[in-house]
């Protein structure tokens, strides 16, 4: 039995690992643009993750769940897989136009899309405080990108920003479909089915021959991109064992800051100077980043508070049982 201190430290460790690897991912994806296109790299990431996760689930005897699925369940899995493919591919593609930190920060719009999806498809209400957080998040985005308005490269940056929004929207739709499958499959098996679906569907559109000409350094970058999926999501799942969901979600909201700092570290140490460049963010841009991060964290705590109130209200409405 773990003590409260040990539980906190384990949650902090696994949340930190998740944030670090997700913060490093856009840097690695930007480096990969020199030897692979986004579709091929995404296919490789799904393939490696699918093979490793498949062997793990097979060894644990967890593949029997798939026998109970109906046609509509498979349709939801394939739909979720399609949206996750779009999410992965568009995020990698956006890095041709955006810096790693900017891409991660732009992706923070995903909670808004997820909330809107819950509103339209699951009939979930959005509280006024949540709307306030989303408005602050949007303002923060505009403040962070304010140098773009007078930049000569503004068109490219806005293209990258638009691609990120497609990625965030696709991820939100994937998350909603995944949520609807939790009663039929374990999360690991949902991901396994999606990985294998992507392996087959993306193969005709990918160019595995590109990977045969990789240098040793390129292979290391590609291996990191592949293992990042397993390590980050594995650490994320472990973090949820020790911390409440809202705590983990609040920690994950720090990913853009981590990506921004890691990018500046790479620049300061002279790593990949031709590919990784400083954002040269001014004080106003940093204030915008802070607004986005605070909004992303706040909406998690507000959502958790609303759920607790709903649960208490439902418990109070239940009739007392007479012995």
Characterise the protein shown here.
The protein is mainly α. The chain has one domain. 75% of the residues lie in helices and 0% in strands. The protein has 13 helices and no strands. α3 crosses α8 and α11 runs antiparallel to α13. The chain starts with a helix and ends in a 6-residue tail after the last helix. The mean pLDDT is 83.
Mean pLDDT: 83
Number of helices: 13
Radius of gyration: 21 Å
Strand content: under 5%
Number of domains: 1
Helix content: over 70%
Q: Ranges with pLDDT <50 over ≥5 residues?
A: none
* Secondary structure tally: strands: 0
What is the secondary structure topology, with strand pairs?
Blueprint: H1 4-32, H2 38-59, H3 71-94, H4 100-106, H5 110-121, H6 128-144, H7 154-181, H8 187-202, H9 209-212, H10 216-242, H11 245-252, H12 255-268, H13 283-317
Helix pairs in contact: 1-4, 1-10, 1-12, 2-3, 2-8, 2-10, 3-7, 3-8, 4-12, 5-7, 6-13, 11-13
What is this structure, in a nutshell?
Helices cover 75% and strands 0% of the residues. It is mostly helical.
Keywords:
323 residues, mainly alpha
